[in-house]
Amino acid sequence: MASSSGNDDDLTIPRAAINKMIKETLPNVRVANDARELVVNCCTEFIHLISSEANEICNRSEKKTISPEHVIQALESLGFGSYISEVKEVLQECKTVALKRRKASSRLENLGIPEEELLRQQQELFAQVSE
Prior knowledge:
Blueprint: H1 15-25, H2 33-60, H3 68-77, H4 84-110, H5 115-130
């Protein structure tokens, strides 16, 4: 797949991901292969556009890491302000999932019991249940 910059042909969204999104969004519609290819190219171009703008915003604010706020500002400056509320919802969901993962991980670490011992205890409990 050729892209506008010419040297990043491998930087595209996986076709399987696009096919899944199309099937979930339009379950009763057949989509031609060239239309699917066009969707892949449009998605890739959109991501390049937003990331480039977010990178410029990041550089202007003298930061080295693009943050969600830079992406939101990029959406606004490129005229995609209507997406911002949904983007913020997804961002909040991601933060919630990440927090739950960290809490679950730290609970095990805070027990002070080695993983091997926890596995042994788990196997004992399974054995008791099956008796």
